[in-house]
Structures are given as structure tokens and as C-alpha cells.
Design goal:
Blueprint lengths: L2 E11 L2 E7 L7 E3 L2 E3 L6 H13 L1 E3 L3 E9 L5 E9 L2 E3 L8 E6 L12 H9 L5 E5 L5 E4 L1
Parallel strand pairs: 1-7, 6-10
Antiparallel strand pairs: 1-2, 1-4, 2-3, 2-9, 5-8, 6-7, 10-11
């Protein structure tokens, strides 16, 4: 089975998390965490460090894998997004063409204009008892949190 791989990272600073307001031109608009695609030959952890740096200007130190988000695509391949958390970082925050980045109170996220799927994705980041968000594409994209 073929797979497409991506990552998202919740960068934390006290009660705040780093969010990105993705423009509609990128196909996945609204508030999300920074992240992106994993390049061929790149480690998954290195990819999240690279993506967060490219999109925010921050260098992550020791990001921790905290879950996955996955679904089957129409061509029979699986799309897998590795979810990371990190509170140890350095650098100066700056936005990129991927969207404006800013700090937001963690508790305010549910009321924000979230990107498609972020509401349920946030549950995996916030709940230690969860490690997977699986969309059952055979059943109208039924959400399964495990």
C-alpha cells in the first residue's frame, strides 16, 4: 500500500499554542498548527523540525510524537499525518507564505475559525488517552478517535 506522509506540531508556551492562519489559496484555509509534507529520505522528526522552521522561524528541540491522523484516499493510498508536541524551541517568530503565525490561548482554539478537521485533531493533541484520529472514508468520513 502506498502512503502520503505529513506532520503537524503543536508548539506550546505555557497556556498558549502557536497557530497558523492558512490562506484559502493553499487549499486548507483557517487556523491550524504548522506542519507539512515529509520529503523522500527525510526522517519524520527531522521533517517536523524543518516544516516548523520554514513556516514560523522557530527551531524545535526534541519534539515528541503524540499521535497520528489518517485516512484512505480515493486512489487506495493512505494519508498519514504524524502529530507532534514541543515546548522547547529557539528563534524569532515570523510568518511565511503558508500563513500568519501567532500565539493563542489553548482554551480559545475551539472558538476560532479552524481549518477543516482541526477540531477533532486538537482532541488528540489535548487528550493523553487518545493517539489516533482515523477518518472512515467508506462511511461518510466518520470520525474515529482512538
Amino acid at each position: 500500500m502506498k502512503a502520503e506522509l505529513g506532520n503537524l506540531c503543536m508548539v506550546c508556551s505555557g497556556s498558549q499554542v502557536l497557530v497558523q492562519n492558512r490562506p484559502a489559496a493553499h487549499g486548507w484555509s483557517g487556523i491550524a498548527f504548522p506542519g507539512g509534507h515529509i520529503e523522500p529520505g527525510e526522517s519524520i522528526t527531522d521533517s517536523v523540525i524543518r516544516e516548523v522552521f520554514e513556516e514560523t522561524g522557530l527551531t524545535l528541540h526534541e519534539p515528541k510524537l503524540c499521535g497520528v491522523k489518517d485516512w484512505m484516499q480515493e486512489d487506495g493510498s493512505r494519508y498519514i499525518v504524524f502529530l507532534y508536541k514541543c515546548s522547547d524551541y529557539s528563534g524569532e517568530l515570523k510568518s511565511s507564505e503558508e500563513g500568519e503565525v501567532f500565539w493563542a490561548e489553548r482554551d480559545s482554539l475551539p472558538g476560532m475559525n479552524l481549518s477543516s478537521g482541526m477540531k477533532e485533531t486538537i482532541e488528540v493533541f489535548f487528550e493523553d488517552s487518545l493517539s489516533e484520529l482515523y477518518y472512515d472514508t467508506d462511511n461518510d468520513w466518520k470520525i474515529n478517535l482512538k
